[in-house]
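agent: user wants the full assembly modeled, not chains individually. Plan: 1) parse entity lines 2) check alphabet per entity 3) run joint structure prediction 4) return tokens. Steps 1-2 passed, two entities, 927 residues total. Proceeding.
--- entities ---
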Amino acid sequence: MISRRGAAFSTRRMTQGLVLLGGIALAFMTAWVVLFAKLLEADRAMDTRVREDAMWAVFQADRHAHTLLHLSELAIRTQDTALHDDLVRAYDILYSRATLLEGGAFVIDLRGTNELGELARSTARLVHDLADQIDALTPGGEEYFSALRSLHPTFEHIRARNADLVLKTNHAMNLLRVEERAERRYIADRLGASGGLLVLAFLGIGAILALQVMHLRRAHRRMAHLQERSRRQAMRARAASQAKSTFLATMSHEIRTPLNGIIATTELLGMSEMRPDQARRVTTIRDSGQLLLDVINDVLDLSKLDSVGLEFTTEAVSLPGIADLIRSAFETRAEATGIVLDVSLPPFDVETDPKRLRQVIVNLVGNALKFTRAGQVTLSGRLLGPDLMRIEVTDTGIGIAEEDQKLIFEEFRQIDGSYARQFGGTGLGLAISRRIVKALGGEVGVESTVGIGSTFWFELPVRILGPASAEPVPISAAISVTEAPGPETAALRVLVVEDNAINREILVDLLEHLGHRACVATNGLEAVARVDEGGLDVILMDMQMPVMSGTDAAREIRAQGYTLPIIAVTANASAEDRKMCAEAGMNDFLSKPIAMDRLVDVLRAIAPRDAAVVTDHPRGSACAPDTMAGRAQRAECGAGSVSQQFRDLSATLGHARVSGLLQRFEASLSESRRKLCDALASADTAALDTELHTLKGAALTLGLEASGRRAESLRAQSVSVEAVQMMLDHMRDELTAARAHLACEVACQTLAG
Amino acid sequence: MTRLKSLALKLTAWMFALALSAPLVAAETLSSPAGAPVLEISGAITHTNDGALARFDMDMLDALPQRETVTATPWHEGVQSFTGPQIADLLDLVGAEGKTLRVVAINDYAIEIPVADMHENPVILASRQNDAPMSVRDKGPLFVIYPFDENPDLFNELYFSRSVWQVKAIEVHP
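--- prediction returned ---
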């Protein structure tokens, strides 16, 4: 800040300096021009003053005065009249010279009123005055010589004055020369001085300009630096925010898992014989747990929106289908509180994002039920035009004050802490809903009167496809409020296409557990061949496989004219992947690791259409007979230490089988340890990586998520024997916890039985 | 006798005619001055009338084509009118073949003037100032006059020094 002000100051000072120096330079330039003009003028004046040489004129006059004097002397001395003509000639010439002294134009003005002028004029007059006497001279006789003698002193006088004039003119000439030289030097000196100063001023201007350019450059560099720094800061902030969102999502997930355990266990506990006060407390625990789960689900949703962003898919959605779903999801809850739930949506199929539409409606209906003590919650909808749909959820709840109506859609905003205490929830559901609706290009709002009720509404742009089809459009996406799988479906013949043996085995086990029949293929090409053999209802297709990928296989199968459903199974669940699958002709989408309820949903959606007689399975079926019982155990013994995947696995495959798998995994750990230590000893990083990868895969498949992550984290760094030992120790710990959980589940089952 | 007289008459007439026609046909000879000579030209000349010299009286000079030069000079007040023959014509008349003239004044002042000057400018040997003859006292009788007013380039000390007055002789140097 200080430096910037300093820079601004110095820039201002520099500008002032520049103006000042510019002014000075201009002044000097003007002075220079003026002086030069003066010099030119002086020169021109000298030109126009071009005159005869006064010194010459005076000297010539003196010479002729001398000649006259000399001739006069000679004539008088020799008494020779023959000299008369010469004498007159000498006088005539002197006369013409005298005239010149009087009227000639000289550098030194002899016509002036100064002493020199006076002298010149009187001398000239003296010569001229002699003219009559000279003309009167007649050579011959004594008279002539006496006249000459009488003239002689005048001649001497003229000569003397002329000599004086020579000396004085010479002196004046010298003075003039000195004066002229001095004047010229004066002008030349000033010209030189102002020229020098001009050069100095220009140098100053140049220096200041250079300084200014330097300053500008420095400022530019500083600005670029600041820009770069703020860009980096923004990037860091974004990354930090992203990391937080991801962390939040992970944490929420981690919290939800044990919470599910708590709720399920509490429900089990509630079924046992208890004193009334104990039963009341158990109910409180369960309700609190449910509230906490709702909160966690909201946070999870929001953080997912934050970290992943909103991805949309548009599909045909049957509005009556959605109404059915809402009805079945909330019926029990409404009945429990004595609220009338009235659900009716117009009988149309529209094109929109089914999952998001359901999510918003579920949020609004759930919200309405939460804040309504008695009365009615109505879900209704209507089409406002060919491409606009309005959905309304009206309740007879506590209502919202007008000033709070805008706030309730904002994130992390509770209109009043007491609401939360009284009714629970984060209020994030509304914020999430608003985000979704806005992102879909719609509007959301509320009309409410305190004490009477509220109407939450939203309008979405949709494409109306026509009247609802008799059969509901398959609803494939999971809904967070779906609490249990629906009714059993007919047995299906399923082809599992998967290159990984363990994954394949688990998937087959799951399918058989659900009462379906499974056969397998290890790559796309085998799958295509197996489809040709016939007798299949559905294909679960892995995406990445050797020989032929899942998408290529799907394309090939479709090209051969088969229409049986193909479900993609992939670790990548992006919209881009979904689009690729749809383009390859696949019908639906399962993400890894496969959640039981998702699998149930997907197969249920297929079952009504493709219900068929169970035929012989090529591999033979090892179907577990008590599927219902197996599934009922789901998540009832939720200890905090095990993952959803593990619990799904144990619920599906049975405790005995999972226990066996755990034992096999534990037995393989000592072998892994040996291999890892060998790899470390020989510094074989490739072998190390391969072994860690294998360990990770095995652990994750078994639902030992912490172990899997540890193995993965070791891959990213240089490891020591201690680190390997620590990892293996942790794996054993997790194994122990998983075993304890299994034991618990067995105990619970016994209790329930 | 009468024959002899008529012969003598004829002869005289012929000689007279010859004398008259001589300057017209070829200036091999130059007429001699009848009055007092005011100018003598010597040196590299082919036409003379007194041994190696060509002498001129005022009439002879007046007989040449006259030019009037009106100009100011450093030696007179105000603009003056000068009249006289062009020196170039004078040089042609005496068959001068030289590069330089040495002009000498009565007071023995002398200066060398390139002949080229005479061809580049109508320089006259003035014998009249304001239509009156010039006495020695008035810097006469002959005065070399450059046309200063017609050609301002001449108005400087070099041409002032060549403006000889009281001219009495011209020497033609090769």
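agent: reporting back. The first helix of chain B runs from residue 2 to 25. Confidence is low (pLDDT under 50) at residues 17-27 of chain B.
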